Amino acid sequence: MQPDFWDDKRPAGVPNTIDLKAYRSVVEVFERSCKKFADRPAFSNMGVTLTYRDLDRLSAAFAAWLQGNTDLKPGDRIAVQMPNLLQYPIAVFGALRAGLVVVNTNPLYTAREMRHQFNDSGARALVYVNLFGKLVEEVLPDTGIEYLIEARMGDLQPSALKGALINAAVKHLKKLVPQYSLPRAVSFREVLKKGRSHSLKMVKKTLDDIAVLQYTGGTTGVAKGAMLTHGNLVANMQQVHACMLQASADGQPLIKEGQEIMIAPLPLYHIYAFTANCMCMMVTGNHNVLISNPRDIPAFINEMKKWRFTGLLGLNTLFVALMESPEFKNLDFSGLKITNSGGTALVKATAERWKQVTGCTVVEGYGLTETSPVASTNPYGDGARLGSVGLPVPGTLMKVIDDEGNEMPLGERGELCVKGPQVMKGYWQREEATAEVLDAEGWLKTGDVAIIEADGFVRIVDRKKDLVIVSGFNVYPNEIEDVLMTHPKVASCAVIGVPDEKSGEAVKLFVVPRDPELTVEELKAFCREQFTGYKVPRHIVLRESLPMSPVGKILRRELRDVT
């Protein structure tokens, strides 16, 4: 497509370009917002609200402690592994202010997955919540991590007594903290206390410097760190913000600075929520209500009752779970004007029911870890088109190509390619893998098959890759298969994705046993030990053989055809 193809297709109020020189780093966006919106709420969780001034002060203390009590240097990696707690934005923005590179880590990872990510990234420090201390103790000797910062659920309560009671309840009543020993860990509270006595030294960062290593799989099944620069993240913040400038019925922008309350149930360590909640809301000075455990639907809805919320970031699975609760329909939806869906395909019936219950249209977009992540989004309100991922965000180009790399005309399907300032710098220490997806002109091959319509709307129609998307999380068949092949009773195996009402897709595993006594229950137990929850196969089938090509390659396509 020509660069100006989408210029007359975006909704009123949405600009076609962004100013890439408006900020010099993510830190500059953060510090400007903290000054501009100092007295406004930034994040709320567990009954505590931090203003932008609080966030500025606490993240500065965290950064100053890193600078004054460790030998970590700008560019060193620090892993952050925790659910949606107030400690998360403090640690992330503190680390960035200290010049470090943040490695977002899923707290539900197994020991095997943690070892790979920590070692691949070369992380020298880890911030974790004590619920996962036992796993940290297990993997620590096999990593290069030197500094441990341990958070506890009650750390940021205004009263030390209340914090201690919460920590005691989590450990002794709910029994969520297994026994472990990490004597060199420093408590999060101690870090903030000591950090206040140090002055923060400013670290100069450029837009080309890496800000985050965000791990994603690949067709090889090896998790790779997408190098997202300050420039990538700043650009995507501005792009998403530009889309939110869409004019509402009164001609005013849909999103108003410092006035929005966004419910944030999706994990901040996932790139979707990381950019939308942690980063984009900074530009507008708005308020994020963090939901630590969105699986606890009654508690989730009780939290929503406390706020006249105006936005919600979610995905199909979450929308369905909320609407299945009788209490959900009793919430006050009078302020709700934005419901964003991403991570996995939105089901038409879910979208229609959501509009009926809440009065708000679900807007679907598209993105990848490699695009920081937002590449396209639908217009808000009546302009949204179900079954489409909308229009490219400002400053972004898209095209579809055939297997030879030739650009396809409008209306024809081909592999979707994306070009824009939010496209990653490349994969961490993987030049060959980078070259496979990113060409010299900056076009990223997405591995998704799409059609660009004559009016500019983009539809994803298939996936070139074999990845399975479970509740917005990527599951790569080769990773599952490689681990299963280490089981002594497995001769061969294959993984495919199958439709699932709750999670969009589910993992289905086919196994040819080496030992006839191998059982499905034994395989399930093995998978639970090896994989985080969303990767564990929901369906397991034992077979005498698997379909093969003449050269011995397992034909997943044929397995899909018989499913």
Q: Terminal Cα separation, in Å?
A: 38 Å
Total of helices = 16
The proportion of strand residues reads 15-25%
If strands are numbered along the chain, what order do they take across the biggest sheet? 2-1-11-10-12-13-14-15-16
Radius of gyration (Å): 23 Å
Q: Helix amount, in percent?
A: 25-40%
Structural class: alpha/beta
How would you describe the shape?
globular
Rounded average pLDDT: 93
Count of beta strands? 26
Biggest beta sheet summary: 9 strands, mixed
Low-confidence stretches: none
Description of the structure:
This protein has 563 residues and is α/β, with parallel strands linked by helices. The strands form 5 sheets. Strands 2-1-11-10-12-13-14-15-16 form a 9-stranded mixed beta sheet. It has an 8-stranded mixed beta sheet with strand order 7-6-5-3-4-8-9-19, sandwiched between helices. Helix 1 crosses helix 9 and helix 8 (230-243) packs across helix 9. The radius of gyration is 23 Å and the shape is globular. The mean pLDDT is 93.
How would you describe this structure in keywords?
563 residues; alpha/beta; 9-stranded mixed beta sheet; 8-stranded mixed beta sheet; 26 strands; globular
